[in-house]
Write a structure and sequence with these properties.
The protein has 11 helices and 15 strands. The strands form 4 sheets. Strands 5-4-1-13-14-15 form a 6-stranded parallel sheet, sandwiched between helices. The radius of gyration is 20 Å and the shape is elongated. The longest helix is centred in the N-terminal third of the chain and has 15 residues. The chain is of the alpha/beta class.
Length: about 280
């Protein structure tokens, strides 16, 4: 490819990125690495705030309250963040339940997720309940035998089994991890023989929720992230624009060897900033 061809390709990509009306962003590896901002992330977010471009942060972690992520963003140095800027797999589950007629829910989740469901108007059932519209499993750091017994009993009796996110582990500091919702679901499946329906990234239900919340056209909505099989696959499954950044987990070689193709491959979100400003 000649120099002029490369410049033409870059210019076309920049023009196309300027057409995006809504950016949905992964956080760790995309905006920050731990407690450190990725270079250019602050300029990118501040530009979108100043120019009225819609942006949201999406996390598959359903164990925390969305307000916890607002506080984290403030701690990272962003100002003007609100609950409205945060999307979680818990939000996706709530949207799914609303569109599928579920009201009486047995929920195995953290107190934070329980509060989120109650604020949304759902009736959460006790452990001795004999029936429910849905049995829902979240990334539950308060999971115990009583919850496992109740949800297994309900699922075996025919109550539909849902789970917020498919992640096997949740990464912690210093390379450590803890079991996430996907691993907890495996235990319930092993006991009941029934697999759950997952709704967070990378499933289409996540994009259904994003489009319903934002009102943004599908072709002008982008998912930005550093993971091929969550962030980029979400975009592919939901038919929105997929932007892979190489500032976190994936490399260019991973993308070349993988079977999920992003629409754009950028070094970091700073490249989006330079393209749209």
């Amino acid at each position: 490819m000649t120099g002029s061809e490369k410049r033409g390709k870059v210019n076309r990509a920049a023009a196309e990125l300027r057409e995006i009306e809504c950016f949905v962003l992964d956080m760790d590896g995309t905006i920050n690495l731990g407690e450190n901002l990725i270079p250019g992330a602050k300029e990118y977010i501040e530009y979108m705030q100043k120019n009225g471009i819609s942006f949201y942060f999406f996390t598959n972690n359903s164990s925390k309250a969305p307000e916890d992520y607002v506080k984290k963003l403030e701690r990272l140095g962003f100002s003007g963040m609100t609950r409205g800027n945060i999307m979680t797999s818990g939000d996706v589950m709530i949207h799914y339940l609303r569109t599928h007629g579920g009201q009486r829910i047995y929920l195995a989740g953290t107190p934070e997720l329980e509060a989120q469901f109650q604020e949304a108007g759902f009736t959460l059932l006790p452990h001795d309940t004999q029936t429910a519209d849905f049995a829902v499993l979240g990334f539950d750091k308060t999971f115990n035998f009583e919850k496992a017994d109740t949800i297994s009993r309900l699922i075996t009796a025919g109550v539909p089994f849902l789970a917020t996110n498919i992640d096997r582990v949740c990464p912690l500091e210093d390379g450590k991890f803890c079991p996430d919702c996907g691993s907890m679901a495996c235990m319930i499946t092993h006991a009941t023989g029934i697999e759950p329906k997952f709704v967070g990234k990378p499933f289409k239900e996540t994009v259904d929720y994003i489009l319903a919340k934002t009102g943004s056209p599908r072709e002008k909505t982008a998912m930005v992230g550093d993971r091929l099989y969550t962030d980029v696959k979400t975009a592919v499954n939901g038919g929105i624009v997929g932007i892979a950044v190489l500032s976190g987990e994936i490399s260019y070689q991973d993308i070349e060897e993988g079977d999920v193709a992003p629409d754009y491959i950028l070094d970091s979100v700073y490249d989006i900033y330079t393209a749209i400003k």
